[in-house]
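Hi team, as promised in this morning's meeting, here are the two structures we talked about. I've kept the exact order from the run log so nobody has to guess. The first one is mostly here for context; it's the second one we should focus on when we meet again. Sequence first, then the predicted C-alpha cells.
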Amino acid sequence: LRVLNGIRSPPVGFARNVAHFLPNHTALIYNLGLGQYALQLLQSHCNSSRCNVVNFELTFFPSHVEEERIHAFRPLIIQDALNKAGAVLFLECNQRLVSGHIEPLLQQAVSGSGVVSWATHYATSSLTHPKMFDYFHSNADSFLFLPMVETTWLLIYNIAEVHTGVMLPWVQCALTQDCVLPIGAQSGGCKFNKKPQYRYSGCHGYDGSALNIVLGLKFGFDESQYTYKGKKIFFREVKADTLAAEMAGLDVNATDSTIITRDGM
C-alpha cells in the first residue's frame, strides 16, 4: 500500500504521521510546486525507502490542471501512484491518520469493488454543475439520491476494472477543461436552503463531482459498493493554525520532541 499526498507546502507532519502509524507502508508525497527551501526541508524528513518525494510537473498538462481550486491534478497523481503500486490510500495534506489498524479498509476493498470512499450527507446532484452531466451523457435526475463521497480520503486498488471503469474516465475529465470546469461553475456561494435539497446548490465540486459521476455510473448508482461500511474513524483534519505552528517550529530548528504529538504530528 502506498499512502499518497499531493502538496504545495511541505507536509513534514504528514510524513511523520504516516511513519508513526504505518511504518511498514510507503508514503509518496507529490511535490506540486514547492520552493527550493521548502523542498529541502521536506526531503530532510522524507528520504528513506518508506518515504519518497515525487516531483510532479504540472506544466506537462493543460493549463487548467495547475489551478488550485479545481484540483484537476488529484486524479492525475493518484493514477501516477497506482502505476507504481498495487493500492493507494490518498490523503490531502491537512489530514492525519489516527489509527494504524486499516485492515478493515483493505479487506473491504479487496473483497469488494477495489474502491473505498466516505459518503457525505449531500446529494451528488446538489454539488455538480448540470453541464458536467452532459459530458458524461447522463443527467442530474439519476444522481438526486446518490450521496456525494469525499475526495479528501480515498482507497483505490490497481485492478483492471477500477482502471478502466473509474480512473480512466476520471482522468479524462480532469484533463478536459469543459468537463471539469464547465462555464459558469464556481465553488463558493452554496445555497443549501433550496427545496428539495438535492437541487443544484450553485456550488460545483470540480474533480470531486467528476469522481462521483464516474462512480455512480460504474456501480449502477449503488453507493454501498464503494463507500466505507463501518463506523471507525481513521483520519482527522489538521487546522491551518496548527499547520502554521508546525512550520514555525521547524523554521527555528525545533527538536522532534518539541513538535511530535501522540499521533505522530
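And here is the second protein, the one for discussion:
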Amino acid sequence: MPHLKHLYPEPYTYQQYQELPEGVRVEIIDGVVYDMAASPIVKHQVIVIKLAALFERFFSGKPCKPFVAPLDVVLDDINVVEPDVFVVCDPDKITEKNITGAPDLIIEVLSPSNNIKDRRNKKWLYEGHGVKEFIIISPMEESAERYWLVNGKYGLSELFSWDENFYSNLFPELFFDLRVIFEKEHVVSEPDPAWLVRARLAYPDMPR
C-alpha cells in the first residue's frame, strides 16, 4: 500500500480526510496518507468474511462489539485507519459514523500491497495507542501472528501455523481453527479445556 506524500500535504489531518471525495479510500498514519484503492486478494476477503461471522456469533449478547472494514477508527487527529476486523468494549468510543479511540482487539489480514505497512507501521501505531491484542493473519504464509500489550509494549510475537487452533489472550473463550480459516478443512475443533483454565487464571479480569 503506497504512501501518497506527493499528493497530500503533511501532516495530513482527520479534518482534511473528511473533505476527501466520496469513494476515495485512504488511511492516515502519523500524518502520512496511504492509498487503499488496490483491491484485496480473494483469500483476504474469504478470511475476513469467516472471521466476521465467527466474531458476530461469539460477541452476540456481550458488551464488546465486533466491527469490520470499511469503518474509520480515529486514533487521533493524524492517525485514521480501517482495520479489517476489530472489537470495541468501551461504548463511549462508538459514534454514529466512526470509532473514536483504540479498539481492544484488532485483526489485520495481509495482502501483497499492505504487507510492510501492516507488519511494521500499524504494529507501532497500535502499540502506541494501547491496542491490547493485535493479530496479523497472512493468507500467503497461511499463518497467524499475535502481539499482546504488556506494560504499554508489545513483546515478541506468537506464531500459529495453519494446522493449529488460535486462542485470544484478551477473550480466552474466543478461538478459531486456522484450518477452517484457510479452507484446509471444513470442520470446527473443540476448544482445549486446559487452555481455558490457564487463560481464566491468567486473565481473571478480562471480558468474556
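Starting points for discussion:
The chain has one domain: 40-202.
Residues 40-202 form a domain with the tt1808, chain A fold (CATH 3.90.1570.10).
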